[in-house]
Design a protein that fits this description.
Length: 169
Amino acid sequence: MRRRLYFLMPGVGTVRDVVNELLLARVEQRHIHVLARDDVPTGGLPQASMLQRSDLVHGVETGLIVGGATGAVSGVIATLTPAAGFLDSGGIVLICAVAGAIVGMWAAGMIATDVRNSRLRQFEAALDQGQVLLMIDVPKERVEAITELVRTHHEAHLEGSEPTIPAFP
């Protein structure tokens, strides 16, 4: 099981030094993610993916629940109309619920790709000021060692961690 650590750093130079040290400490590059304001050049650093930057996972989950519930209610209403009397009411409700869930996931996912990740809200002000967020996914047993490694840079501040990595980052 891995934990995600968040570090705010003042600039790209510090992040570059820390990333190089993490790579030397055998942290795989795919477990290192850098997020900065759009106008901050971070060339050569492992960029945060769309799943890490946006609220896509949360949006799809919400769309699944809301769309499924809306589809089920629509199915119930459809079975109560006289024209649907010849169809199996359970099947109609199930089909409408599944269709609603699919449409809800699609629509909410499309919207959520443009929304900043809700887990990163606490870092918005610092990112807007030009700081750089470094996210590192490390095994539980290496959390303290990696934290100490990053803290050797006096400008790096541990800003938090998640108990486990989100399901689909």
